[in-house]
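Chapter review. Work through the record for Lectizyme before attempting the end-of-chapter questions.
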Amino acid sequence: MGPRGRILGGNNVESNSSPFIVSFRYKGLIYCAGSILNNNWVITAAHCLSSEAHVYKTSSIAGSIYANQTESSSQQRTIDHYVVNDLYLGDTKPYDVGLVYTKIGFKWTATVASIALPLKNVIPSGNAIVYGWGSTSNTNTEVFPHILQMAKVKIISMKACETALEYQASDLHSTNLCTGPLTEESGICTSDSGGPLVQNLNGKNILIGIVSWAEIPCGRKNSPSVYVRVSSLITWISQNQKIPKNKKFAINK
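Structure tokens for Lectizyme:
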């Protein structure tokens, strides 16, 4: 993940099981992910949007679970505008959230759909599912999957997260959320950044977290995965899905 992000210890997803996820691809390679909020807006990690030149040459692809190809059902869009939380200071700091806008909206199909947001300030508990195309290696040598991965993870308390992170605990904030397990090789890693942490409540997928960072090498004992807690930023998300009045879009991109 840049800062540090991937799915380790996961399994291949089934087709149509995660229609809300998009991959961000630069020169054909996936470097981050995001979640569809509505036809025109996708939410991701702020650190995925650190380079303006990079962002505006990124393809946002929905409806495809494959890393090295796209299906006929996939929808490819450019990023025409983006917003980064102005409280984000970079790297593993809090408020690692951003929004991207595509002028040509996504069309809802069996493989492309939006995800619901949680209620404001709710603190999630229990288990959740994290999704991503990030490295599946627990060494410093990255190994990337061909198919989108998913892993069941357990939400842990902030106190347990702080204890496990030790010297990096100072980077944690009340707007973060952590998952374990702390004893098994399962969690996020490089290129999972911006992707969704999801709970299914009453048959509805709810976006509870956005992949932010983890320690490298990934999946080590006592190495939690750290996310942006979406419920802490509901107001910001709502208020920033807008285009500046003077915004000009390129005719051909």
